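Re: the request from the purification team.
They wanted to know what the chain is likely to look like in 3D before they choose a buffer screen. I agreed to run a prediction and write the result into the notebook, where they can find it.
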Amino acid sequence: QVQLVESGGGLVQAGGSLRLSCAASGRTFSVYAMAWFRHAPGKEREFVAAISTSGGSTYYADPVKGRFTISTDNAKKSVYLQMNNLKPEDTAVYYCAATVRPYNVLSIVQTKIYDYWGQGTQVTVSS
């Protein structure tokens, strides 16, 4: 079992920044990858960013490339999402996710491979 708790969401003006945090506990030693997804009203939950806990490779959705950065701490007990130059279209509930399955790297952007999810944190970007 892995427990995930997000924090750091809030209201920010366009062009501003936020840093989301996800604290992990439980069987974190078995986690293969951690990721951030977001869910906006009327849209499907979509991939934002992911990081491999073994090699540290990162992956980003096209709309956030160059603006968002995913990272972990030295102990890999937390995952972060630094969001810069925020846009109104970034408004959504952001979820932290983790998987203990050794999936191929090509599957790291797929919602279905993640077994554990946080409760979500709201990010609202005003115009």
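For the purification team: DSSP finds no helices and eleven strands in the chain.
Please add any questions underneath this entry.
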